[in-house]
Every structure is written in structure tokens, then in C-alpha cells.
Design brief:
By secondary structure, the protein is an alpha+beta fold. The chain has 11 helices and 9 strands.
Length: 258
Amino acid sequence: MFDRSRGVLFPSRLPAFHRLAPPQTAEDLVQWFWIPEWNLDPGVVSRQTVVSYPAVNLVVEPHGVSLVGATTRMSERILRGSGWAVGALLRPAAVRTLTADASSLVDTEQPLSAPALHDQVGAAMGSASNWREEAVDVFARWLSARVGEVSSVARHANMMPEVLIGEGGANTPAEAAARLAVSLRTLQRMTHRYIGLPPAAIIRRRRLQDAAQLVREQPNVSLATIAADLGYTDHAHLTSDFSSVLGFTPSGYRSESS
């Protein structure tokens, strides 16, 4: 679950980056916390290119707090100077407490008024030791207090990420619905409510993340083999998926990431 590079297209370009498990008290609310930190020399630029997980994130940065929606395309951020962020990849149980419409967040972000969270995380990130763990702890306590008791409905919705994007995830929406013991229509409503995307798009994003990682990390494996192993109809479909979301072909990506 805590693969440092999954979803990151060029890991060698990363600044310091950490994924931390949530405290036990927040396991129903957060899949993991992620913390990038950077301190670049004047004039140096770090370009971060990511195929994000299909989920809503709550992010604290020095300038404020924001809800960041699921994306349908590659995202890129240019880092300069110094800075940090503390993000929480939210489980469905937390999403509904923070927004009534996850679909309105797709491919965008919205500021969230949470001055106590901002101040507490900022103070933790400025501490002398164990700053990441302290930041995660205060973040988790704030979120737990905000959400309160997790309902049985929310716990059932929390099963979606594992079924759709977890290791060994479903290959089709129908398979995902069967694993969750709901109708396909119910699954569609659930993903719209808690993630903002249809089930097929979520599965496609997971498969694209896996494909990018295999193309990058296994240069001696043919693209046709990777396509077949991940359930693509053929090499052409893998290329189409890459081109439509990432803007380049698998072979072009392999060359650039080598």
C-alpha cells in the first residue's frame, strides 16, 4: 500500500517524499498520509509529474488547507525554493463529512476553512524532531474529531478503494459490484458520491498506474506482454490509454524514464 513511487511518473525527480500509515484511530478515515518536503537552490526547478490515485485528498500547506479532488488526467506541479505539504488520501467515511459532492471536486481543488488544523500541522512541521509523525498525529486527531463516529454505511463504502484500486482489484465494474455485494447501479452511486468518478474510470486509473510502473521498472519486458498481463485488449489499447491521459506513448515514457 505504501509504495513510494506508484503514481509518480519520474521518481528520480522527487524531493524528500514520505507515505505514512494513519494512526489506528484514523484508519477508517485515511488510507495514508503523504508528505513532500523540498529545499531547492536558487534558480533550481523540480517538475513533479503524477498520475494521482482516484480519491479525494485533504492537504495542508504553509498557505492554507484545501480539498483536492480526483483527477482524470496527469497532473504536474513545479517546485521552487523551499516548502512542504501534508496530505491525507481520504477514505469514503471522511469524504462525506468534508464535501457533499465529490464530483464537484474532480480535476480541481477548493479551499477549506480549518485554521486549527493549519496551525497545528504547521507547528508540527516546524518542530525539531519527529516532525512528520507529529504532523500526522495532529492531523489524524483533528480529522477524527471532525468526522465523529463512523456509520455502518460509511464502513461499507470504505471497502470500495480496496476492491477498485487495491492490489488484486476488480477488472470490471460488474466484478467490483459483486465483491461489494451491491448492484452495479448502487456501486455507480457510491463512487459518484465518495470519489466523483464512475467505477470504470477508477479501475482504468489503477491499471494505468500499474502499467506506468511496469514500463519504467521492467525495461526488458515487452510492452505487449505488459498490456496482456494488465488485461488490456492489446498493445494498441495500452498506447491509447497512455496517450490520452499522459500525453505520450509507453515507448516514449520508457525512453524518458530510463
